[in-house]
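About this split. The held-out portion is used to measure sequence recovery: a designer receives only the structure tokens and must propose an amino acid at every position. Recovery is the fraction of positions where the proposal matches the reference. Here is one held-out target exactly as it appears in the evaluation file.
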């Protein structure tokens, strides 16, 4: 199970975070509207390869930590259903 280990703000409101099991890789998040998304991963060959599913889990954990999870999931609903119909 992935775990958010540490995070801090960087320049221009970006966030740098570290996750378990990617102890040596730094993940940079950027804000968009009312939530954060993974902008880049400074991956270390000491860590496992980061998959798309891992990136999505990182986004969920970070947005949960910052209490922007609702906005993040609203974006997912809109992206999967742009017409707004259920």
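Reference sequence for scoring:
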């Amino acid at each position: 199970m992935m775990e958010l280990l540490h995070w801090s703000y960087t320049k221009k409101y970006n966030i740098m975070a570290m996750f378990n099991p990617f102890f040596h890789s730094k993940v940079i998040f950027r804000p968009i509207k009312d939530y954060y998304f993974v902008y880049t991963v400074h991956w270390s060959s000491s860590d496992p390869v980061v998959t798309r599913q891992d990136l999505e889990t990182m986004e969920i954990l970070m947005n949960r930590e910052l209490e922007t999870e609702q906005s993040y999931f609203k974006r997912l609903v809109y992206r999967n259903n742009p017409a707004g119909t259920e």
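Annotator remark: The chain has two helices and four strands.
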